[in-house]
Amino acid sequence: MSPGRAHQTPVGLRSHWLRRDWGWLHLVAGGQGPALWLVHGLGGSAHDFYALAPLLRGDFTLLIPDLPGSGASDKPALAYSPQLFVDELAALSTELGLERAFWMGHSMGGQIVLTLALERPELTRGVVAVCPSGGHVGLGRLHRLALALLARPDGHLRLYHRGAIRLWIRYAYGDPSHPSREELTRRVQAQWDSLEGPLVERSFVRAGRALLDRPLWQRLKGVSVPVMMVGGKRDRITPPRHLGRLLGHLPHGAPYHELPCGHMPVYTMPEELASLATGFFQGP
Predict the structure, then answer these.
(1) Which CATH superfamily is domain 13-137+214-282 in?
(2) Backbone dihedral region of 31: left (phi > 0), alpha (psi from -120 to 50 degrees) or beta?
């Protein structure tokens, strides 16, 4: 998407295109109050927070980026990884003069904001990690073989069928009847079927491989900023045992809340998620 092209956003928020050294980054921003970054997960986009944003914009100035390689941002040939996203968001936050912001991340975005809390505490007032990745033990031989069979070294899938997107999103939801599932499926399929589909595929495969290669939980003992974790009782993407490893290595007293949902509470339980996050960030 070229800079300046119309992009529908929630009421009270606007699209901005920021020039970076790798291309254009799309950022949705608006609201009032302290800065709160909302960071999407693997294969996601700023759209993932459009149900949540109206519930938060009265208390926070929201900054919702499409990460490099995702959504409406450019998709150059980068070595996509959670660490690249951490470095990009830290640089962007500093350039915008937003030191000591709040951060919320979903799935891979949860791993990103936890890494920011660990590596860049000076930029972080508090973090909410929603169904975060990074709690897996690592890849065994069978996992590596499966990954090699599914993805080519150049960062593309060996075989792609559009029905796989429908199955994956259904699996992630844990509540296949939720009305947002069909809308999300149509939107993701449309992007993968478009002319930029091969670029989306490349960034997805590269980021996914990097995500699996480097678990985060063993590093979290050094976190010094307030962290809250939110999980889904029926989450099959980041199951409770993964969240347990992350939580067990955070400083003692980090709160955890389990919602009765799958991996997508940003779509299925936005009111509950907004209430938890606002209460945590604003304190007693």
Answers:
(1) Alpha/Beta hydrolase fold, catalytic domain (3.40.50.1820)
(2) left
